[in-house]
Amino acid sequence: MSDSPSATPQPEPGRIVRRQTSGQRGWTRWLPGLQTLRSYEASWLRHDIVAGLVLTTMLVPVGIAYAVASGVPGIYGLYATIVPLLAYALFGPSRILVLGPDSSLAAVILAVVLPLSGGDPARAIALAAMMAIVSGAVCILAGVARLGFITELLSKPIRYGYMNGIALVVLISQLPKLFGFKIESNGPLRDLWAVVTAVVGGKVNWTTLMVGAGTLAVILLLKGNKRLPGILIAVVGATIVTGVLDLAARSGVSVLGSLPQGLPAFAIPWINTADIVPVLIGGCAVALVSFADTSVLSRVYSARTRIYVDPNQEMVGLGAANLAAGFFQGFPISSSSSRTPVAEAAGARTQMTGVVGALAVALLLVVAPNLLQNLPTSALAAVVIAAAIGLIEVTDLRRIYRIQRWEFWLAIVCTVGVAALGAIPGIGLAIVIAIIEFLWDAWRPYCAVLGRADGVQGYHDITRYPDARRIPGLVLFRWDAPLFFANAELFHNRVLDAVAASPTPVRWLVVAAEPVTSVDVTSADMLTELDETLQAAGIELCVAEMKDPVKDKLKRFGLFAGLGEAAFFPTIGAAVSSYLATHPVDWVDWEDRRP
What we know:
Blueprint: E1 17-18, H1 32-38, H2 42-69, H3 75-91, E2 99-100, H4 103-117, H5 121-144, H6 156-179, H7 188-200, H8 206-221, H9 230-244, H10 247-250, H11 276-305, E3 307-308, H12 311-327, E4 334-335, H13 339-345, H14 352-367, H15 377-391, H16 395-403, H17 405-421, H18 423-443, E5 447-451, E6 460-461, E7 474-479, H19 488-500, E8 508-512, H20 521-536, E9 540-544, H21 548-557, H22 559-563, E10 568-569, H23 572-582
Parallel strand pairs: 1-3, 7-8, 8-9, 9-10
Antiparallel strand pairs: 2-4, 5-6, 5-7
Helix pairs in contact: 2-3, 2-13, 2-14, 2-15, 3-12, 3-14, 4-5, 4-6, 4-11, 5-11, 5-12, 6-7, 6-15, 6-17, 6-18, 8-9, 8-15, 11-12, 16-17, 17-18
């Protein structure tokens, strides 16, 4: 194992470690952190401590910034950093994943908190905390029910689309703080228009803008530098300049102020009855977005370290972290695509890195709460804007545009939906589009008539092999999708079209059913009708290469007995041989020709 600071524990070459999650370990399978602690090596501790301290330099300003972006006071961003990190260290399966307040959730939280809180900070944190509890409960229940696969509903283009949309929403929400004025939030597009109107109307505080723009420039310039912590340098620099020049008093620069001294306490967030529905919807949206982000990031580092991470346990770990945040004065959290790479680059070995970071933030609140009193809010806005810029995906969308243009436009529709409608409706639109995208491929699937091409094994699509020969009186028809209610009528029509297009009178029609993974009642009834139609025309319906589970369904539906066991063949070749044995036709296969 490499002893470099950025190394992570690696398994043997050529092996992938899969963490046990079966009943063999009993209740401890729900506590991956405890399992890691039992096998913890002393040599890892130094790396975890260093990585945790380096991580702390990002946790504080980013936590405060995302809290403000989410519509709650900055201190609660630190509360939402400390407790979730400790919870995930125990319940989370990924060794180096860092959780906490995140820019991808800020717009979702803000969309619920801002209109309901009425500007009351206590009410805002109660709403946000209850969203975290809802999100945590949803994630835990889904993980226990082994529903980790549901995030597969969101294809890569759709994920890019809604993440780009969320990035735009976050950017727009931070522009007033960057320019030093306030607006009434009425949705992303109206907010953008209000910002433009305010800028044209001369409401910009130029000192505030210079501080924020300078902070943003430093962050972006040092973004690719692994040795210099760009966010830390930029935030510390902005804080020192603001304090030394007394910009808050002289130029009206808004600052964070002193943080409350003390640690987060257990508290049940009480909300009004009228708030229940929007909080439930927002919490479920947060659960979906946070797990989608977390699962992607977790898979990336799982592949990099070759240590398998159970997606169901990942959902449980994320849910536990959100529950802890909700009951300890926090708000919804997710994995961080900016802080996790920092932890890895600093040499993180295990979840202990997050524990060290959480304890360091807690120590700051107890010992030095006034350390960040001169931190300008425009600098915090710059931190959020820089993170939002990092969320925007352009390069891979260009690749998708080249190879699959309709999926590129699908991503653009999702982006526009999130930016125009807001985060929650936009994410709902993305889910609907994802389901439609899935159903479309099965609703209007590809189908083919097969023939025998000289010199090529098997039977192939005659449109791809124009020289392929068709056996007289036999139609080999392949259907590349499950059979279900939405495509049953199309299947029926395509089969009859294939029969009508045959160059010779048809005696047998063989369905090459290997791609058919399922059959429902509607499609089974359709097959019965199709068989009756073909029989009336003197054509026998047969099936080749049907999977046994699908065959079992046909037996339950009574279709297997109706067609007869003799109508089912294990391979297309077996069906062809049976046809040739019972129907004398002028046919010599290319493999049977004499030299």
